[in-house]
Amino acid sequence: MMRTTLSLDDDVAINIQKLRVERGASLKEVVNEVLRAGLVVLEKEDKKPSGTYRIQPVSGGVHRLPDLDNITELLVAGESESFL
Fold it and tell me: CA spacing 20 to 30 A to 56: which of 7, 8, 27, 47?
């Protein structure tokens, strides 16, 4: 067990006090419970994937874009109803 002095922001202190009253628990019990719950959440966030995702391409039936170097083809495609 570790003894320490802890300074709580006003909003946190109010919520801790509400939990103490609701549960009929001591300050120590409530603070430990809240810290444990918070640590579990933080540990889960640390274990999230590194951001590497694999994407499977799917044909959505989208029309092929015209050749962007050919202005005539772009104008014709942009004016046709099938382009929309």
Answer: 47
Q: What is the pLDDT of residue 55?
A: 82
26 inside domain: yes
What pTM did the predictor assign?
Answer: 0.53
Q: Which residues of 41-79 are buried (b: 16+ CB within 10 A; e: fewer)?
A: eeeeeeeeeeeeeeeeeeeeeeeeebeeeeeeeeeebee
Domain of 24, in residue numbers: 10-46
Query: How many angstroms separate the CA atoms of 67 and 11, rounded?
Result: 60
pLDDT along the chain (84 residues), means of 10: 91 96 95 94 79 76 73 80 54
